[in-house]
């Protein structure tokens, strides 16, 4: 596990954790690591820091640019590490950090990655889930982008994070969502998508809403107080 983490760090990951496949007992059917890769024994989850300065701009175009580059960066890490492992005789399967994915419900405009990376992050000890449904890390808050590799051998697991998640009385993200898409546990994607992505006639698009990420007192780490 140390070797895989070291490789991930060398390619730009800021956090790495290992979850044994046995921890995924509650994964939805079709999204369990073994549904994706039957020989999976361990899941190596990693995260790269999302630059905070993007939240300070008066337009979300820079945030959108960085998000897209984060997808490229994280997928590049997954690809490179998985490829290197295979050349050394260790089978592994990279998980897309965003798309492509298989599941799409057109009526609900609801998509689902082939595996939930934020839940995998919890099981690998990288953080806890907030009421905004984002993974929060003790050091980087929710300003991280996640990736994972399914590995065919048993690796030394990391402990699940023991620190607390959101303050029990805090409802900032829920109250601030202009679409009322949050209720503390899940996200209504249909409501969220109506506001979160804007298109223009020139064919461009921008992630036009990131309030649930930005409004969180812990978006820059868990040292802040509600």
General description of the model:
With 226 residues, the chain is of the alpha+beta class. The chain is 28% helix and 19% strand. It is built from 7 helices and 10 strands. The chain has helices spanning 2-10, 33-36, 61-87, 117-123, 172-176, 189-196, 211-214, and strands spanning 15-20, 42-49, 92-95, 103-105, 110-112, 128-129, 135-136, 144-151, 197-199, 205-207. The strands form 4 sheets. The chain has a 4-stranded antiparallel β-sheet with strand order 1-2-8-3, sandwiched between helices. It has a two-stranded antiparallel ribbon with strand order 4-5. Strands 6-7 form a two-stranded antiparallel sheet. A hairpin with a 5-residue loop joins strand 6 (128-129) and strand 7 (135-136). The protein starts with a helix and ends in a 12-residue tail after the last helix.
Annotation keywords:
226 residues, alpha+beta, two-stranded antiparallel sheet
Structure in a nutshell:
The protein has helices at residues 2-10, 33-36, 61-87, 117-123, 172-176, 189-196, 211-214, and strands spanning 15-20, 42-49, 92-95, 103-105, 110-112, 128-129, 135-136, 144-151, 197-199, 205-207. With 226 residues, the protein is α+β, with helices and mostly antiparallel strands.
